[in-house]
Amino acid sequence: MIAIYRENPTVTVRDKLLALAANPGLPVTNALGSAFVEWKTDRILPAIIRIMLASSSYPRRRDTEPDERAVGQAHAQRIGKAVAAELAWLSGQGEEPGWPTLPPWLTRPKRYLQLPGFTAEKPRKRRVEPPDAYANEQRLGEIVSHLVPLTVGTLPDWLLPLTKHLMAWTLSANASEDEEREPEGRPFTWNGLFFDYLGILCAALPHEEVVVSLVQPITELGDEAFHDGMASLLRGFDRAVLSSNATKPAYPAAMRIALAERLKNTRNYKQLNWRKEFTTEIHAADALTAMFFQRSGILQTRRPSVPDNWQGLEAVMPTLTGLATGAASSGYLAVLFLDLIETSRRPALLPYLLEALGAWCSAYGPDTSFWVSHDIGGRVCRWLKDVLSDDATGVLDSSQVKALVDSLDILVQAGVTSAREIEELLVVGTRHS
C-alpha cells in the first residue's frame, strides 16, 4: 500500500493507509513507520501518527461478558471516530484534530515501613478506581522510534508540539501527582525509547528551549526515574553529536552541564562522597556511565563511545571533573573518569587529571588497595608518562607542578613504583623549561 501510494497518491489509497494505522499489530506499525521519512512534508503523516496513538489505548478487561463486549464496542467506535476526523481534515471538511489523550498510568497506594511495636491504627487508604483504559507502551515505543529520522534537517512544525504532548504523559507515568499514591511500576520500555529519541531531538533544537521545555522537567522527577531518563537522554544526544548526518548542537557540553547539578543532589551521589567503594546503585550506575560517554549494559565494555582524541572532550571535562572530585571517595567514579581520559592523551587535559588526582590523594592518602589493587595509580602514571614524554611540562605552572609532585609522593608511599618515573620526567622537563 505504501508503494502504491508513493506511485499514485490517490484518496482511496490514502484512506486505506489511515485505516491500517488503527491496526494495533507491531508489524503494521513498523511498516507504516518505515515511510515516515518520505511522508515528512505530507499531511498524511501527522494524521497517521494521531490514529496510531489513539489506537494504542486499550480498554481494561471487565468481569462479565456483556461488560467486556460493551467496552470493546465503545473502543471500536472511538477509533472509528478518530479515523473519520482525520479523513474529514484531509478532505478539507473539518479542523485538524488535536493529539490524542493517552490514559493515565496505573497507580497504587504508597507503601510505608512500620516500626516494630508501633500500635497506632493505620490510616484507611481511600479506594481509587483504575483507569478505564491502559496504554500499550511497547507500541508507543515503536511509534516514537520511527520519529528519530524526522529530526534530521528541517523539523516538521508539528514534531515539537507532539514531543511536548508525549513528554507530559511520560512525566505523569513516572511520578504521581497524588501524594498518597505512586506509579504501579514504570513504563521502562517506553522510557528507554522516548528519552533516546528526545536526546536526538534536543541536539537539533536551541539550547535555551531544550533546557526549559525538555530537560528541566526531567530533573524534577524522583531520583530513580531521573537516573533512567537522563541515561537514555544523554545516549541519544551523544549519538546525534557523534553521527555524520544528524543536526549538531551549537554547544554540546550544555546538556551535561544542565544535568550535572541535579545529579549531584541525588541521594546516591551524596552517598558516593563518603563510601570508599567501587560499586554503586544500578539505576545511578547507568546514569553515571552515560554521563561519562559509556554505553548501557550490565557488562560494561569500559570503552567510552567517543573516538580517540575527540576534540569535543575538552568542553565537557570541567563538568565531569567536578563530578569526580565532588565524590572523590568513589572508586566507581574514578574508574569512569580514567576510562574516558585515557581515550585522549593530550596535554590540554593535564589540568583536569591533576585536579582529580589531588582529590583522590586527599580522600585516600597512601591507600594501597585504592592505588595498587585497583590499579588507579598505575593508570594515572601511564597516562602521565605518555603525555609528559612529549615535553608537555611547559603547560603546567609552578603551582600545578608542586601539586603533582605532592600527589606523586603519596603514590610512592602507596607502592606505585611507576610514580618514580613521572618524578624523573618532571625533573627533566623542569630543567628544559
Please characterize this protein's 3D structure.
The chain has 433 residues and is mainly α. Helix content is 58%, strand content 3%. It contains 20 helices and four strands. The strands form two sheets. The protein has a two-stranded antiparallel sheet with strand order 1-3. A two-stranded antiparallel ribbon has the order 2-4. Helix 9 (207-219) runs parallel beside helix 11 and helix 19 (398-414) runs antiparallel to helix 20. The longest helix is centred in the first third of the chain and has 26 residues, at 65-90. It is flat.
Index terms:
433 residues, mainly alpha, two-stranded antiparallel sheet, 4 strands, 58% helix
Quaternary state of the chains: single chain
The portion of residues assigned to helices is 55-70%
Largest beta-sheet details? 2 strands, antiparallel
Average pLDDT rating: 89
Give unreliable regions as ranges. Answer: none
Strand order of the largest sheet: 1-3
How many beta-strand elements?
A: 4
Structural class by SSE content = mainly alpha
Q: Please count the helical segments.
A: 20
Radius of gyration: 27 Å
Order of helices and strands: HHHHEHEEHHEHHHHHHHHHHHHH
Measure the end-to-end span: 73 Å
How much strand content do the residues show?
Answer: under 5%
Shape annotation: flat
